[in-house]
Amino acid sequence: MTTPEPGPLSSAGFWLHHAALAWRADLAGRLQPLGLTPTQFLHLASVAWLEDLHGPPIQQEVAEQAGADRMMTSKVVRTLSARGLVSRSPTEVDGRAVRIALTRAGREVVDRATAVAREVDARYFGDEPGPLRDQLRELAEHRGL
Fold this sequence. Notes:
The protein is mostly helical. Helix content is about 65%, strand content about 5%. A hairpin with a 7-residue loop joins β1 (about 85-90) and β2.
């Protein structure tokens, strides 16, 4: 009698994928009253984080922080700008580069959205997510290598 090949239900990757889908759907539902999608929140939070570190970032830095490509970031930043949540301006050195800054409304929304995201994270990962976060970060940074 042979043992059957392990199916997808025995794969950690399968469950990681489904857990990520559930987390994202929950986050999306909780961000919707704030008028944000998870992708918009990620970009807005990236602007806030980088701005707090060293002042208004350039759009490429936002893309890198968010883990998004430049075209997606450009589209999202334009949407956030149209809503008055960020301002866009050319940089002093390179007119092609765009500097992004939170507006007062953007700061208020990102603060509220961050609180929502923390609540969702606590529901999924508990009050002490450090070890899991560190493991996921290591996997993401090494891309499985």
